[in-house]
Amino acid sequence: MGLDDILKSVTGGEGNSQGGGLIDSVMGLIGGNNKGLGGLVEKFTAGGLGDVVSSWVGKGENKPVSADQISSVLGDGKIAEIAKKAGIDPKMASSKISEILPQVVDKLTPNGKVDKDDNAGFDLSSLTDLFK
Predict the structure, then answer these.
(1) Helix (H, G, I), strand (E, B) or coil at 99
(2) Count of CB atoms situated within 10 Å of the CB of 35
(3) Rounded CA gap, 15 and 131, in Å?
């Protein structure tokens, strides 16, 4: 399953004008200069949410994460940047990320662990097209 299929399954394939920027930003949390999925897991673990992020990676049920927890781990500056890019309020951005991120991480780790190649081969630049 490609990353675009994962995101369609997570979002129900529904689009909106802000979604492209939000999804692009969420995927930026995983790719780019952020050490991939492993780096994101490390960030959540360092933020005191290791048990939560481990549930997303593992094969069991995903534990929920709140918008406040997302803001705490990512920082207000990053949330503000994501919100601006998506054209939405920072509180809404945190809320949407708290809904999307656990499912994306879950789908990227079908074997229940973070492999260095979990996000390899995905064209992250195509994600913004999902919500146009």
Answers:
(1) helix
(2) 13
(3) 4
Q: Whose CA is closest to 127, among 104, 109, 94, 99? A: 104
Residue 66 clears pLDDT 90, i.e. is over it: yes
H-assigned helices in 1-132: 3-11, 19-30, 36-44, 50-57, 67-74, 76-86, 90-108
Task: Give the Cα separation of 84 and 86 in Å (integer).
Answer: 5
- Among left, alpha and beta (phi > 0; psi -120 to 50; other), residue 84 is alpha
- What's the CA gap between 6 and 41, in Å, rounded? 18
Average pLDDT over residues 100-106: 88
CA distance 103 to 7: 9
pLDDT value at position 125? 38
With beta carbons less than 8 A apart as the criterion, state whether 111 and 67 touch. no
Q: Which two tokens stand for residue 100?
A: 């999307």
Residue for token pair 């951005």: 93
Handedness of CA 68, 124, 31, 52 (dihedral sign): positive
Q: What are phi and psi of 35, to 5 degrees?
A: 60, 30
